[in-house]
Amino acid sequence: MVAAMITTPLFDQGGEQRRALANVVVLSLFAVGLLTTWAVHRMRAIVAAGAVVVTTYFIELLGSTTGFPFGTYDYTSVLTPQVAGVPLLVSFAWAGVTLVVYGMFAGGGARWVQLAMMAASITAWDVFLDPQMVGEGYWQWQPASLAFRGIPLVNYVGWFATALINSALVMAICRAPHAVKSHGVIPHGLTSRDATSRLSVITYATLTVLSTIGFVFFFDDVVVAVVGTVAMGTCLWWGLRRSRRSAIGLT
User: Fold this and answer.
1) Which is it for the CA torsion 159, 163, 166, 169, positive or negative?
2) Which secondary-structure segment (H or E) carries 50?
3) How many angstroms separate the CA atoms of 136 and 47, rounded?
4) Which residue, among 81, 210, 71, has the nearest Cα to 134 in the 3D structure?
5) Which residues 6+ apart lie within 8 Å of 226 measured at CB?
6) C-alpha torsion 175→163→240→217, nearest 10
7) How far apart, in whole angstroms, are the C-alpha atoms of residue 17 and residue 107?
8) H helix or E strand, kind and range, residue 73
9) Residue extents of the structural domains in the chain
């Protein structure tokens, strides 16, 4: 994922190389989310991932045909494969980031706080994602009076609502950890949930840092870089705080 994100700006915008690298980034993110969740929840991780993929596919199908809940937009034919005009990669992106964020906030604290922070963290990623994907020509928006860099503000409301649904699904399915032995893979003194939490935080931090660098130095949009860094950075801080509190046994 890191290699693909770093390599992407080195190729021409709209080229086949960038499309291939977009697939690598998303599928790598999905793999990280699935495997870290598998370490704690085993088969429930697969069920949760499948539930998010299917749910978001139908939400994206609804959104691209009716304009609800994201606003009026259309997918181009660039990203493939597509089913009924919706690229399947989009649903895997939803599932990947949802599982990674679940790892950041799972365990301890009030469930409604966990749900809200997951939804906020997922939505914060879209501050970077949507401007970049529009620039790549993967989808396009109808002009709106209230917009951020050409992205209707209602899109972020729709993202938050969809993220709430996805987060609630994953939390419900992965409601109890599976008893897993580390077999020497996880350092002594760390549980599988601790290791999952740390890797999830690292993954989210990687998305934050590399996206910021990309928009400052390669995509030429400092505004998106600043807003995205503040949004994702705030969520990352909360994830780090929760991870540290969990590590010392606090809730």
Assistant:
1) negative
2) helix 43-66
3) 32
4) 71
5) none
6) 150
7) 40
8) strand 73-75
9) 2-247
Q: What is the 3-state secondary structure (H, E, C) of 73-116?
A: EEECCCCCCEECCEEHHHHHHHHHHHHHHHHHHCCCCCHHHHHH
* Helix/strand/coil for 16: helix
**R_g (Cα) of the chain, nearest Å:** 18
Query: SS3 for 221?
Result: coil
197 token code pair = 């939490």
Q: How far, in Å, CA of 37 to CA of 41, rounded? A: 6
| Per-residue tokens: 104 | 């950041």
Structure tokens at 91: 């649903």
pLDDT of the chain along its 251 residues, tens only?
999 999 999 999 888 999 999 999 999 999 999 999 999 999 999 999 999 999 999 999 999 999 999 999 999 999 999 999 999 999 999 999 999 999 999 876 789 999 999 999 999 999 999 999 999 999 999 999 999 999 999 999 999 999 999 999 999 999 866 544 444 444 445 567 778 889 999 999 999 999 999 999 999 999 999 999 999 999 999 998 877 765 555 44
Task: List the one residue out of 41, 44, 53 whose CA is nearest residue 90.
Answer: 53
Looking at residue 184, its amino acid is G
**232 sits in which H/E element:** helix 222-247
What is d(CA 222, CA 228) in angstroms, rounded to the nearest whole number? 10
Cβ-based burial of 142 (10 A; exposed 0-12, middle 13-18, buried ≥19) = exposed
Q: What's the token pair of residue 249? A: 């046994």
Interatomic CA distance for residues 15 and 144, integer angstroms: 28
Report residue 133 as tokens: 């994907």
pTM of the model: 0.92
